[in-house]
Amino acid sequence: MRVVLLGLPGAGKGTQAALLAAAAGVPHIATGNIFRQAVAESAPLGLQVRAILESGGLVPDELTIAIVEERLLRADCRAGFVLDGFPRTVAQGEALDALLQRAGTPLQRAVLLEISEERVVDRISGRRACTQCGATYHVEADPPAPGDLCRRCGQPVLQRPDDRPEVQRSRVAAYRRDTAPLLQYYGRHGRLLRVDGDRPLSDVTAELQQRLSGASEGGSAG
């Protein structure tokens, strides 16, 4: 299985990517995680990322692509991978295709989890996180204990600054501008798979696993 997950911030990409990867026995590769790993390892690329993040900048395409390439060339990716958070632009998508074509292992699917803008804003603006252990909740779907306390450790549960509705709308606008063109790119190449992401988690997972079963067996997109 060699797939990427696309969708609005809050569409459920991280959750579904982790479930798909576990079911297929391949790595779940999230851009944020490999940035943090590269920084923690103090690798040359990681040191560049650290300097950019500490200055409040955005990691440029060239560096992002280099870090993803380094991760995909590791031995555990030989059987496949599920990418979450990359690519974000057409340039990144083209670079990923070039890398995988050189390795003789082309990308099989680009999965779009479809969900409305208002729905993702509702999802994320209702999210709360424990200030102590990091456990996450949702005020409607999975509320914390009475008094806005963590059910795990009893500490206060708060809304993260970047989960506020106005911040989420800004992130959605950035997605529309930078990432939406990827849908046309993958659609032209016959690799885009659209899935309704505004359903119970188990229903989305079941459909994804059924429709991607050919990819986990080495089949190509159609």
Please outline the helices and strands.
Layout: E1 2-7, H1 13-24, E2 28-30, H2 31-40, H3 44-54, H4 61-72, E3 81-84, H5 90-102, E4 109-114, H6 117-125, E5 127-130, E6 136-138, E7 157-158, H7 165-178, H8 180-188, E8 192-196, H9 201-211, H10 213-216
Parallel strand pairs: 1-3, 1-4, 2-3, 4-8
Antiparallel strand pairs: 5-6, 5-7
CATH overall fold name of one domain: Rossmann fold
Secondary structure class reads: alpha/beta
CATH top level label of one domain = Alpha Beta
What's the alpha carbon Rg, rounded to whole Å? 18 Å
Largest sheet: 5 strands, parallel
Using the alpha-carbon principal axes, give the shape. Answer: globular
**Average of pLDDT:** 87
Uncertain spans: 218-222
**What is the CATH architecture assignment of one domain?**
3-Layer(aba) Sandwich
Distance between the termini: 14 Å
Order of helices and strands: EHEHHHEHEHEEEHHEHH
Strand order of the largest sheet: 2-3-1-4-8
Percent strand: 5-15%
Let me know the number of strands. Answer: 8
Structural notes for this entry:
There is one protein chain. The protein has helices at 13-24, 31-40, 44-54, 61-72, 90-102, 117-125, 165-178, 180-188, 201-211, 213-216, and strands at residues 2-7, 28-30, 81-84, 109-114, 127-130, 136-138, 157-158, 192-196. By secondary structure, it is α/β, with parallel strands linked by helices. The chain has a domain at 2-115 and 177-209: Rossmann fold (3-Layer(aba) Sandwich), CATH 3.40.50.300. The strands form two sheets. Strands 2-3-1-4-8 form a five-stranded parallel β-sheet, sandwiched between helices. The chain has a three-stranded antiparallel β-sheet with strand order 6-5-7. A hairpin with a 5-residue loop joins strand 5 and strand 6.
